[in-house]
Amino acid sequence: MDNIASHENWKSCFSEIGPGLLLFARQWTRSAADAEDIVQEAFVKFWRRNHQINNRALLYATVRSIALDFIRRDKRRVRREATAVAEADPTIEPQFEWADEGQSALAAAVSCLPHDQREVLVLKIWNELTFSEIAGALGISQNTAASRYRYALAHLKKSLQPQ
Amino acid sequence: MNDFSELEKDLKALRPAQPSPVLFERIEGAMAENSRARVSDAGPMANWFWRFTETPYRFGIGLAAAAAAVVLLIARISTDQTQNENTEIAQVSPPSQARPVQPSFSGRSGIDGSMSSNKFVSSGATQVVYNTRDEGLQFADGSQQPLRRLRYQTQQTWQWRNPSTGASLRVSYPSEEVVLIPVSGQ
User: Fold this and answer.
1) Which domains does chain A have, with CATH numbers?
2) pLDDT (tens digit per residue) in B27-38
3) Does B38 touch chain A (CB under 8 A)?
Protein backbone atom coordinates (compact mmCIF):
# COMPACT_ATOMS: atom_id res chain seq x y z
CA MET A 1 0.00 0.00 0.00
CA ASP A 2 1.49 3.26 -1.07
CA ASN A 3 1.78 6.10 1.28
CA ILE A 4 0.43 9.40 0.10
CA ALA A 5 3.80 10.95 0.85
CA SER A 6 5.51 8.69 -1.65
CA HIS A 7 3.11 9.52 -4.45
CA GLU A 8 5.03 11.31 -7.12
CA ASN A 9 1.79 12.02 -8.86
CA TRP A 10 -0.09 13.20 -5.81
CA LYS A 11 -1.80 15.71 -8.06
CA SER A 12 -3.60 12.97 -9.94
CA CYS A 13 -4.53 11.42 -6.60
CA PHE A 14 -5.90 14.73 -5.43
CA SER A 15 -7.64 15.31 -8.77
CA GLU A 16 -9.52 12.11 -8.16
CA ILE A 17 -10.64 12.75 -4.60
CA GLY A 18 -10.42 16.57 -4.49
CA PRO A 19 -13.94 17.41 -5.75
CA GLY A 20 -15.52 14.97 -3.30
CA LEU A 21 -13.40 16.25 -0.43
CA LEU A 22 -14.34 19.80 -1.32
CA LEU A 23 -18.02 18.94 -1.50
CA PHE A 24 -17.76 17.24 1.90
CA ALA A 25 -16.08 20.32 3.38
CA ARG A 26 -18.62 22.67 1.77
CA GLN A 27 -21.28 21.33 4.12
CA TRP A 28 -19.80 23.37 6.94
CA THR A 29 -18.68 26.52 5.19
CA ARG A 30 -20.30 29.53 3.64
CA SER A 31 -17.86 29.84 0.76
CA ALA A 32 -15.83 27.64 -1.54
CA ALA A 33 -12.71 29.50 -0.44
CA ASP A 34 -13.22 28.43 3.18
CA ALA A 35 -13.86 24.85 2.05
CA GLU A 36 -10.63 24.89 0.04
CA ASP A 37 -8.73 26.12 3.11
CA ILE A 38 -10.13 23.19 5.09
CA VAL A 39 -9.32 20.65 2.36
CA GLN A 40 -5.79 21.99 2.02
CA GLU A 41 -5.15 21.81 5.76
CA ALA A 42 -6.64 18.32 6.02
CA PHE A 43 -4.85 16.92 2.99
CA VAL A 44 -1.47 18.28 4.05
CA LYS A 45 -2.00 17.11 7.63
CA PHE A 46 -2.94 13.65 6.41
CA TRP A 47 0.10 13.51 4.13
CA ARG A 48 2.41 14.81 6.86
CA ARG A 49 1.31 12.08 9.25
CA ASN A 50 2.25 9.36 6.76
CA HIS A 51 -1.20 7.82 6.71
CA GLN A 52 -2.12 5.35 4.00
CA ILE A 53 -3.94 7.04 1.16
CA ASN A 54 -6.47 4.25 1.05
CA ASN A 55 -7.42 4.89 4.67
CA ARG A 56 -10.15 7.15 3.38
CA ALA A 57 -12.21 7.04 6.57
CA LEU A 58 -9.32 8.73 8.35
CA LEU A 59 -8.88 11.30 5.58
CA TYR A 60 -12.54 12.30 5.75
CA ALA A 61 -12.46 12.26 9.55
CA THR A 62 -9.55 14.71 9.33
CA VAL A 63 -11.52 16.97 6.99
CA ARG A 64 -14.50 16.82 9.32
CA SER A 65 -12.43 17.55 12.40
CA ILE A 66 -10.77 20.57 10.77
CA ALA A 67 -14.13 21.77 9.42
CA LEU A 68 -15.67 21.60 12.90
CA ASP A 69 -12.73 23.56 14.31
CA PHE A 70 -13.26 26.05 11.52
CA ILE A 71 -16.92 26.44 12.46
CA ARG A 72 -15.99 27.21 16.05
CA ARG A 73 -13.48 29.83 14.95
CA ASP A 74 -15.85 31.22 12.35
CA LYS A 75 -18.70 31.46 14.84
CA ARG A 76 -16.49 33.49 17.15
CA ARG A 77 -15.50 35.72 14.26
CA VAL A 78 -19.13 36.16 13.25
CA ARG A 79 -20.04 37.12 16.79
CA ARG A 80 -17.19 39.57 16.95
CA GLU A 81 -18.22 41.20 13.77
CA ALA A 82 -21.82 41.34 15.00
CA THR A 83 -23.24 40.26 11.68
CA ALA A 84 -26.77 39.11 11.17
CA VAL A 85 -27.97 36.16 13.22
CA ALA A 86 -28.96 34.31 10.11
CA GLU A 87 -25.34 34.21 9.05
CA ALA A 88 -24.47 32.20 12.15
CA ASP A 89 -25.84 29.09 10.44
CA PRO A 90 -22.60 27.36 9.44
CA THR A 91 -24.10 25.11 6.80
CA ILE A 92 -24.59 25.97 3.19
CA GLU A 93 -25.78 24.00 0.24
CA PRO A 94 -23.24 21.81 -1.51
CA GLN A 95 -22.02 23.15 -4.82
CA PHE A 96 -22.61 21.14 -7.96
CA GLU A 97 -22.14 21.60 -11.65
CA TRP A 98 -25.59 20.95 -13.04
CA ALA A 99 -26.54 20.74 -16.69
CA ASP A 100 -30.31 21.22 -16.61
CA GLU A 101 -33.28 22.19 -14.48
CA GLY A 102 -33.74 18.66 -13.25
CA GLN A 103 -30.21 18.55 -11.84
CA SER A 104 -30.65 22.01 -10.37
CA ALA A 105 -33.77 20.83 -8.53
CA LEU A 106 -31.93 17.74 -7.35
CA ALA A 107 -29.02 19.83 -6.04
CA ALA A 108 -31.47 22.09 -4.22
CA ALA A 109 -33.20 19.06 -2.70
CA VAL A 110 -29.86 17.69 -1.50
CA SER A 111 -29.10 21.00 0.16
CA CYS A 112 -32.41 20.81 2.07
CA LEU A 113 -31.63 17.43 3.60
CA PRO A 114 -31.02 17.23 7.35
CA HIS A 115 -27.33 17.60 8.00
CA ASP A 116 -26.69 14.08 9.29
CA GLN A 117 -28.36 12.54 6.24
CA ARG A 118 -26.65 14.86 3.77
CA GLU A 119 -23.27 14.06 5.31
CA VAL A 120 -23.73 10.33 4.70
CA LEU A 121 -25.15 10.91 1.21
CA VAL A 122 -22.19 13.07 0.18
CA LEU A 123 -19.73 10.45 1.40
CA LYS A 124 -21.60 7.59 -0.25
CA ILE A 125 -22.53 9.08 -3.63
CA TRP A 126 -19.78 11.54 -4.46
CA ASN A 127 -16.91 10.08 -2.47
CA GLU A 128 -17.82 6.42 -2.97
CA LEU A 129 -17.09 5.38 0.57
CA THR A 130 -18.45 2.11 1.91
CA PHE A 131 -20.78 2.17 4.90
CA SER A 132 -17.92 0.81 6.95
CA GLU A 133 -15.70 3.73 5.90
CA ILE A 134 -18.50 6.23 6.46
CA ALA A 135 -19.03 4.81 9.93
CA GLY A 136 -15.32 5.23 10.64
CA ALA A 137 -15.21 8.78 9.30
CA LEU A 138 -18.26 9.98 11.20
CA GLY A 139 -17.84 7.94 14.38
CA ILE A 140 -21.17 6.16 14.00
CA SER A 141 -22.17 2.53 13.49
CA GLN A 142 -22.50 1.01 10.04
CA ASN A 143 -26.21 0.45 10.64
CA THR A 144 -26.69 4.09 11.49
CA ALA A 145 -24.79 5.11 8.36
CA ALA A 146 -26.90 2.80 6.20
CA SER A 147 -30.18 3.95 7.71
CA ARG A 148 -29.26 7.63 7.36
CA TYR A 149 -28.48 6.96 3.72
CA ARG A 150 -31.85 5.30 3.18
CA TYR A 151 -33.63 8.16 4.96
CA ALA A 152 -31.78 10.65 2.76
CA LEU A 153 -32.87 8.87 -0.42
CA ALA A 154 -36.44 8.60 0.79
CA HIS A 155 -36.40 12.26 1.76
CA LEU A 156 -35.09 13.23 -1.68
CA LYS A 157 -37.56 11.05 -3.52
CA LYS A 158 -40.41 12.58 -1.59
CA SER A 159 -39.26 16.14 -2.13
CA LEU A 160 -38.76 15.61 -5.87
CA GLN A 161 -42.20 14.17 -6.45
CA PRO A 162 -44.53 16.50 -8.32
CA GLN A 163 -47.03 18.16 -5.97
CA MET B 1 -32.76 -0.62 -2.52
CA ASN B 2 -34.02 -1.12 -6.06
CA ASP B 3 -36.64 1.55 -5.65
CA PHE B 4 -33.84 4.09 -5.15
CA SER B 5 -31.57 2.93 -7.99
CA GLU B 6 -32.89 5.53 -10.44
CA LEU B 7 -32.43 8.28 -7.90
CA GLU B 8 -28.90 7.08 -7.09
CA LYS B 9 -28.10 7.18 -10.80
CA ASP B 10 -29.37 10.77 -11.04
CA LEU B 11 -27.36 11.76 -7.98
CA LYS B 12 -24.18 10.26 -9.40
CA ALA B 13 -24.76 12.18 -12.62
CA LEU B 14 -24.67 15.39 -10.58
CA ARG B 15 -21.03 16.37 -10.47
CA PRO B 16 -19.52 18.33 -7.60
CA ALA B 17 -17.73 21.58 -8.43
CA GLN B 18 -14.04 21.21 -9.20
CA PRO B 19 -11.45 22.69 -6.85
CA SER B 20 -9.83 25.84 -8.14
CA PRO B 21 -6.46 25.33 -9.87
CA VAL B 22 -4.89 27.56 -7.23
CA LEU B 23 -5.68 24.92 -4.61
CA PHE B 24 -3.25 22.49 -6.26
CA GLU B 25 -0.49 25.07 -6.09
CA ARG B 26 -1.31 25.88 -2.48
CA ILE B 27 -1.20 22.22 -1.48
CA GLU B 28 2.03 21.68 -3.38
CA GLY B 29 3.56 24.69 -1.64
CA ALA B 30 2.39 23.53 1.78
CA MET B 31 3.80 20.04 1.16
CA ALA B 32 7.15 21.45 0.08
CA GLU B 33 7.25 23.63 3.18
CA ASN B 34 6.42 20.67 5.41
CA SER B 35 9.06 18.52 3.72
CA ARG B 36 11.69 21.10 4.60
CA ALA B 37 10.44 21.25 8.17
CA ARG B 38 10.47 17.45 8.37
CA VAL B 39 14.17 17.29 7.48
CA SER B 40 14.98 19.28 10.60
CA ASP B 41 12.81 17.10 12.80
CA ALA B 42 14.42 15.27 15.70
CA GLY B 43 13.27 11.83 14.62
CA PRO B 44 11.36 9.45 16.89
CA MET B 45 11.87 11.61 19.95
CA ALA B 46 9.99 14.42 18.26
CA ASN B 47 6.62 12.93 19.22
CA TRP B 48 7.40 13.37 22.86
CA PHE B 49 9.57 16.40 22.56
CA TRP B 50 6.88 18.54 20.95
CA ARG B 51 5.11 18.84 24.26
CA PHE B 52 8.06 20.60 25.75
CA THR B 53 8.66 22.92 22.84
CA GLU B 54 5.17 24.27 22.81
CA THR B 55 5.15 27.93 23.68
CA PRO B 56 2.93 27.73 26.79
CA TYR B 57 5.05 24.92 28.21
CA ARG B 58 8.21 26.79 27.41
CA PHE B 59 6.68 29.76 29.15
CA GLY B 60 6.08 27.60 32.24
CA ILE B 61 9.64 26.30 32.21
CA GLY B 62 10.93 29.83 31.85
CA LEU B 63 8.90 30.95 34.82
CA ALA B 64 10.10 28.01 36.88
CA ALA B 65 13.71 28.84 36.01
CA ALA B 66 13.13 32.48 36.90
CA ALA B 67 11.55 31.46 40.20
CA ALA B 68 14.50 29.19 40.99
CA ALA B 69 16.89 32.05 40.24
CA VAL B 70 14.96 34.34 42.58
CA VAL B 71 15.07 31.72 45.32
CA LEU B 72 18.83 31.32 44.97
CA LEU B 73 19.33 35.08 44.96
CA ILE B 74 17.21 35.60 48.06
CA ALA B 75 18.87 32.69 49.86
CA ARG B 76 22.28 34.14 49.03
CA ILE B 77 21.32 37.60 50.29
CA SER B 78 19.86 36.09 53.43
CA THR B 79 23.03 34.08 54.05
CA ASP B 80 25.25 37.11 53.57
CA GLN B 81 23.14 39.20 55.91
CA THR B 82 23.26 36.56 58.63
CA GLN B 83 26.99 36.20 58.27
CA ASN B 84 27.50 39.95 58.49
CA GLU B 85 25.33 40.16 61.58
CA ASN B 86 27.25 37.33 63.21
CA THR B 87 30.54 39.03 62.42
CA GLU B 88 29.44 42.23 64.07
CA ILE B 89 28.22 40.37 67.15
CA ALA B 90 31.50 38.53 67.37
CA GLN B 91 33.34 41.78 67.24
CA VAL B 92 31.44 43.35 70.11
CA SER B 93 31.12 40.23 72.23
CA PRO B 94 33.72 39.16 74.67
CA PRO B 95 35.64 36.05 73.70
CA SER B 96 33.46 33.03 74.30
CA GLN B 97 34.41 29.78 75.88
CA ALA B 98 33.68 27.96 72.69
CA ARG B 99 36.30 29.81 70.78
CA PRO B 100 39.23 27.64 71.78
CA VAL B 101 37.27 24.52 70.97
CA GLN B 102 36.36 25.58 67.44
CA PRO B 103 38.91 28.04 66.17
CA SER B 104 38.21 30.03 63.08
CA PHE B 105 40.61 29.88 60.18
CA SER B 106 38.61 32.19 57.98
CA GLY B 107 38.98 35.30 60.06
CA ARG B 108 35.27 35.33 60.86
CA SER B 109 35.32 34.21 64.42
CA GLY B 110 32.50 32.15 65.84
CA ILE B 111 30.34 31.87 62.71
CA ASP B 112 31.47 28.60 61.18
CA GLY B 113 28.81 26.65 62.96
CA SER B 114 26.08 29.09 61.96
CA MET B 115 25.99 28.04 58.28
CA SER B 116 23.51 25.32 59.10
CA SER B 117 21.10 27.89 60.51
CA ASN B 118 20.93 29.58 57.10
CA LYS B 119 19.58 26.51 55.35
CA PHE B 120 16.07 26.70 53.98
CA VAL B 121 14.29 23.42 53.96
CA SER B 122 11.38 22.65 51.72
CA SER B 123 8.17 22.87 53.74
CA GLY B 124 5.49 22.39 51.14
CA ALA B 125 4.43 22.40 47.52
CA THR B 126 0.98 22.84 46.09
CA GLN B 127 -0.43 22.66 42.60
CA VAL B 128 -3.87 24.13 42.01
CA VAL B 129 -5.52 23.32 38.67
CA TYR B 130 -7.71 26.31 37.97
CA ASN B 131 -8.65 25.60 34.38
CA THR B 132 -8.95 22.49 32.20
CA ARG B 133 -9.71 22.70 28.51
CA ASP B 134 -10.59 19.80 26.24
CA GLU B 135 -9.12 20.64 22.86
CA GLY B 136 -10.66 17.70 21.03
CA LEU B 137 -9.25 14.75 19.18
CA GLN B 138 -6.14 14.72 17.10
CA PHE B 139 -3.79 12.24 15.52
CA ALA B 140 -0.17 12.01 16.53
CA ASP B 141 2.56 11.51 13.94
CA GLY B 142 2.48 8.01 12.51
CA SER B 143 -0.43 6.99 14.69
CA GLN B 144 -3.88 6.01 13.57
CA GLN B 145 -5.26 6.04 17.07
CA PRO B 146 -6.95 9.30 18.01
CA LEU B 147 -5.68 11.17 21.04
CA ARG B 148 -7.66 13.50 23.24
CA ARG B 149 -5.77 16.72 23.92
CA LEU B 150 -6.30 18.28 27.35
CA ARG B 151 -4.76 21.54 28.49
CA TYR B 152 -4.34 22.16 32.21
CA GLN B 153 -3.60 25.58 33.65
CA THR B 154 -2.21 25.45 37.14
CA GLN B 155 -0.75 27.62 39.84
CA GLN B 156 2.26 26.03 41.51
CA THR B 157 3.52 27.17 44.87
CA TRP B 158 6.72 26.12 46.58
CA GLN B 159 7.54 26.95 50.21
CA TRP B 160 10.78 26.86 52.14
CA ARG B 161 11.38 27.52 55.81
CA ASN B 162 14.43 28.19 57.85
CA PRO B 163 13.94 26.12 61.02
CA SER B 164 16.41 28.12 63.09
CA THR B 165 15.30 31.66 62.20
CA GLY B 166 11.69 30.93 61.36
CA ALA B 167 12.03 32.80 58.06
CA SER B 168 9.95 31.46 55.24
CA LEU B 169 10.01 31.85 51.52
CA ARG B 170 7.20 31.22 49.07
CA VAL B 171 7.30 31.26 45.28
CA SER B 172 4.22 30.96 43.11
CA TYR B 173 4.05 30.79 39.36
CA PRO B 174 1.51 29.81 36.72
CA SER B 175 2.13 26.84 34.49
CA GLU B 176 0.43 25.16 31.61
CA GLU B 177 0.52 21.51 30.66
CA VAL B 178 -0.77 19.70 27.57
CA VAL B 179 -1.65 16.04 27.99
CA LEU B 180 -2.51 13.58 25.22
CA ILE B 181 -4.73 10.68 26.22
CA PRO B 182 -5.20 7.77 23.76
CA VAL B 183 -8.85 7.18 22.90
CA SER B 184 -9.98 3.68 22.10
CA GLY B 185 -12.39 3.04 19.23
CA GLN B 186 -16.10 2.69 19.84
Assistant:
1) 1-92 (no CATH), 95-163 (1.10.10.10)
2) 888 877 777 665
3) yes
